[in-house]
Amino acid sequence: MASRSLDISQIRSDFPILHRENRSKPLAFLDNAATSQKPACVINAISDYYTHTNSNVHRGVYELAEDAENLYHQARKSIARRFNVTVDQVVFVRGATEGLNLVAQSFGPLVLEQGDAMILSEMEHHANIVPWQILSQKIGFEIRVCPTLPNGSLDREWISREFRKKNLKLIALTALSNTLGTVNPIEEIVAEARQYGIKTVIDGAQSVPHQKIDFQKLGCDFFAFSGHKIFGPMGIGVVLGSKDSLQNMPPYQGGGDMIDQVSFEGTTFAPVPQRFEAGTPNVAGAIGLGKAIDYFDQFEISDVVNHENNLYQIARTGLAEIAGFVEHGTTPHKAAVLSFTIEGIHPHDLATFLDAQGIAIRTGHHCCQPLMKVLGVEATARASFALYNTEEEANRLVDAVKKAVSILK
Ligand code: PMP
User: 355 and 245 in one domain?
Assistant: First the structure.
């Protein structure tokens, strides 16, 4: 049960890295859309695992192996609880990228044939574009791309029109844009898709630290995310799948741990989720992710979102005073991701200036090259906030950007 209040200074003391400096200045980490920092409980869980419990899972009869197996299973249970699924719906992967590749490679061919079509949106991350393009080259289906409206929201009417077309079989959509911050109406889109029997794949990479997802209620076929964006370790992520879809899917990779019986005459496969988890898993990563989910579960998501939005508003209001400031993504339905450009200043120069002030932001195409083309820019600067950021950091960002403009312009 969520009960912990959002005492930011107390929360900051949970994250050891926030106390280091960046270029000899206090670190203001405003690149949370790229990755989040880790609380000590996650770091300790990983360290404890290797110190006290390390053993391969699944095959050991000795106590150590049993302990490792129990911790690994516990992590799967924490994830299942958070997303309201059963443990057999939780498939461990390396991250959202691998998850989306798994879905495209294993599930895609079950629903997409030559002459069919699927929908992506202009605001997708490359991780939710390229796997489908690779599949489309093999199968010969068409990828249709939902336009972005000037405020950075999806063209909803376009989607409804496409859904009515006979050969439309699947939509793969980000829940939350890593570049624009747009929160897409996935509940509404999934519900509409289901009326037409259209399959739904949600890229939840950015959603997990800003939204509470009830997978059953959402009703999509797949939801993929990375542990490192939700205070967990890198190299671990999850695909949540509907039972029906997972049951019918062939393996993604072959090897140990994903089989039932192997012979040279033929091999049978393990039930889900093991069927999709070939090889020695990232046990420490899964345990770290389970801890991260438990950590995040202490807080009410509405408290987190209100806090982050407050920081976002401080930053955008302050930056909007700068001549030539353009925010990319202005829909009211957005998370605390602030992408912007300032006329006459290259985002990289700006980020380098901020770095010297201790402020970490990201610049570039954010793995969204098609979106950059739509926005008519090569790169943006992006500040993205998390629950441990402070008003002081948002104000430091504004002051530092203003200073940069006075010097660089
Ligand atoms: N989708 C979105 C929207 C993302 O922001 C990211 C990470 N930037 C990914 C997918 C891919 O995540 P990962 O690199 O952790 O696999």
Answer: no
Shared domain for 70 and 98, answered yes or no, is yes
Q: Is 206 in the pocket of ligand 1 (CB under 6 A)?
A: yes
403 and 312 fall within a common domain: yes
Tell the residue number behind the tokens 């895609």, with chain if given.
108
**pLDDT higher than threshold 70 for residue 1:** no
Domain of 279 in residue numbering reads as 44-296
CATH number at residue 319: 3.90.1150.10
What pLDDT is stored for residue 60 in this prediction?
86
| Residue 144 within any structural domain of the chain | yes
Query: What integer is the mean pLDDT of 36-44?
Result: 98
Same domain for 320 and 242: no
All residues at 6 or more sequence positions from 9 whose CB lies less than 8 Å from its CB, including other chains: none
CA of 124 to the centre of ligand 1 (A): 10
Q: Is the CB of 95 under 6 A from ligand 1?
A: yes
What's residue 106's pLDDT? Answer: 98
Q: What is the best residue among 100, 174, 229 to mutate for testing ligand 1's pocket, by most ligand atoms within 8 Å of CB? A: 229
Count of all residues that appear for the chain in the document: 409
End-of-domain residue from the set 296, 312, 338: 296
Compute, in angstroms, the gap from residue 222 CA to the centroid of ligand 1. Answer: 15
CA of 242 to the centre of ligand 1 (A): 21
The alpha carbon of 373 is separated from its chain's Cα centroid by a whole number of angstroms, namely 22
Regarding the beta carbon of 174 and ligand 1, being less than 6 Å apart is answered yes
The pLDDT value given to residue 39: 98
Catalytic one among 41, 146, 220, 367? 367
* Burial bucket for residue 184 (CB in 10 Å: 0-12, 13-18, 19+): buried
Q: Give the domain-ending residue among 296, 313, 334.
A: 296
Protein residue closest via CA to atom 4 of ligand 1: 205
- pLDDT at residue 2, rounded to an integer: 64
Interval 75-97: pLDDT, tens: 999 999 999 999 999 999 999 99
Q: Does ligand 1 lie within 6 Å of residue 125's CB atom?
A: yes
User: Would you call 44 exposed, middle or buried from its count of C-beta atoms within 10 A (0-12, 13-18, 19+)?
Assistant: middle
What's the mean pLDDT in 138-151? 98
Class of residue 5 by CB neighbours under 10 A (exposed 0-12, middle 13-18, buried 19+): exposed
Q: Is 205 in the pocket of ligand 1 (CB under 6 A)?
A: yes
